[in-house]
UniProtKB/TrEMBL annotation:
This is DNA mismatch repair protein MutT. InterPro entries: Nudix_hydrolase, NUDIX_hydrolase-like_dom_sf, NUDIX_hydrolase_dom. Its cofactor is Mg(2+). Coiled coil: none annotated. Residues 17-147 form the Nudix hydrolase domain. The keyword Plastid does not apply. It comes from the Bacteria. PANTHER family: 8-OXO-DGTP DIPHOSPHATASE-RELATED (PTHR43046:SF2), GDP-MANNOSE MANNOSYL HYDROLASE (PTHR43046). Keywords: Hydrolase.
Length: 155
């Protein structure tokens, strides 16, 4: 069922909506992480997005990463599961979302980076090069990657 969020918003308005997000920590051959600077808030994060009804976690992360980067993920492994206070987001239009995040790790992929409408920039960054304006909902797993916290992580 596509447009799940739109359908639910018609029923509940701006009230908190529980969603499942899947993202990927993608590392290149030099061990750098792929970061995406989004067009909607100019913050940095990792590629990913929300699960659609009927999808698996793997299907979701591979679809979202391809849509946002044009990369095809090969082997993926679980990096961590994230929830908690930082998972509650209020958008400028008043919509509220509590998103449980399933984060994968991938270092084997094919394709060439291509920016879509959601991205201002896609670039690989080393652990010591992370930008200061990380998306606060994604900062916990990006910082866990930076600090080389062992996986899988449940927070």
């Amino acid at each position: 069922m596509r447009d799940y969020i739109k359908t639910m918003r018609a029923m509940i308005g701006h009230e908190p909506l529980l969603t499942v997000g899947c993202g990927a920590i993608i590392e290149d051959a030099e061990g750098r992480i792929l970061l995406q600077r989004r067009t909607d808030n100019a913050m940095w994060g990792i590629p990913g997005g929300l699960m659609e009804i009927g999808e698996t976690f793997e299907e979701t992360v591979k679809r979202e990463v391809y849509e946002e980067t044009q990369l095809h993920l090969d082997t993926i492994t679980l990096f961590g599961l994230y929830s908690g206070e930082k998972s509650l987001v209020s958008y400028p239009n008043g919509d509220q979302v509590f998103s449980v995040q399933i984060i994968f790790h991938c270092s084997k992929y094919t394709g060439h980076l291509k920016i879509d409408y959601e991205s201002q920039e896609l670039t690989f960054k080393a652990r010591h090069e992370l930008p200061s304006n990380l998306n606060p909902t994604q900062a916990p797993f990006i910082l866990d990657w930076q600090q080389q916290v062992k996986q899988p992580i449940v927070k």
